[in-house]
Amino acid sequence: MELIPANDEERLAAVHRYDVLDTPPDGAFDRITALAARLFDVPISIVSLVDRDRIWFKSHHGIEATEIGRDPGLCASAVCQLEPWLVGDAKVDLRTIDNPLVAGELGLRFYLGVPLITSDGFNLGTLNVIDVEPREVTDAEVATLQDLAAIVVDELEVRLAVRRKLEERRQRALELNDDVVQGLAFAKLALESGQDELARDAVTNTLRTAQSMVGELLESAGKEGRLGPGDLVRSSEALVSRPRPSP
Amino acid sequence: MTASRIRVLLADDTAEYRQLLRVILEQDGRFEIVAEAVDGAEAVRSCTAERPDVVVLDLAMPVLDGLQAIPLIRAASPETAIVVLSGFARGRLDDQALATGASRYVEKGEAFSLIVPTLLEVTAEPVGWL
After folding, report:
1. The domain spanning residue B105 has which CATH number?
2. Could you tell me if B32 lies within 8 Å of chain A, comparing CB atoms?
3. How far apart are CA A118 and CA A47, in angstroms?
4. Contacts of A174 in chain B (CB under 8 A)
5. Are strands B31-37 and B54-57 parallel, antiparallel or unpaired?
6. Is residue B130 part of a domain?
């Protein structure tokens, strides 16, 4: 079986954009693998992400390893398709009979891996359940694992969205510094050096810039930037000519 | 008198800042503006070519920021003192700027009266923090 999907470079870019590889254990994912193991009554459940040369485990319930090479990994096969990958008894299945995870110490017999598919259609890895005994699964069980896999992807998406929000906020702070703080600092400097006209122009331009930045921020915060009664109640009185108290 | 004037490079992407600093320093009479740079890379190039006594360096600039430019300026023109003039409040970036080789960190919002004494101070002391 071909173990590298045709779109592997784009798929790897998708894996990397979540910036999750080699991050510490995380309760949200660990709860999902613990739940999957309990529901299937199996010893092992893993959230795996298929990287270029390795399969890295974001969560590994019931097994010490945190990653394996891409070659022997069953997830490498699972990641080639968008359907669940089921091996009921690996010892008699021609796809897996020679696999070191099956023939070796681990003695894997049962594997069900469902793909972690992103909203834009990339397969990042799997949520899988593993047993050392052969077993069968029902369609309902497969559907359950698919739902859990969708929760794993949701968790990844939420983390990515939060990170992007924080980056955006940082970018905004830098823009505020460039466009507003610099303008005011310039006006102060110009005033102090007797360049009144330059100072006045700087204040006028900075005011206009600050107003437009506030407008953009409000628009990006939803409601198309419209304000209504109650939106303008301040948490404390405005400070224009007095210094802000230190927190 | 001309011979003893302090040679200054102004590196700031905001034209108004360069213009205002030029006015302040030229009015004082003890400084000569030898070049202006609009980004960090140009600041490094100008320092290499002009070997000024002091560069007044903004931090947030295109191409290379001030923090990236400081070690390159130090390497290219070790005798040039670097005075950072930044819109960021002290405490956020001054440690990094000083650790990489700047002599002083001045906030853009600080008193205008600080600029001339700071430039006189850094050009009177030996450069070479290493």
Report:
1. 3.40.50.2300
2. no
3. 14
4. 60
5. unpaired
6. no
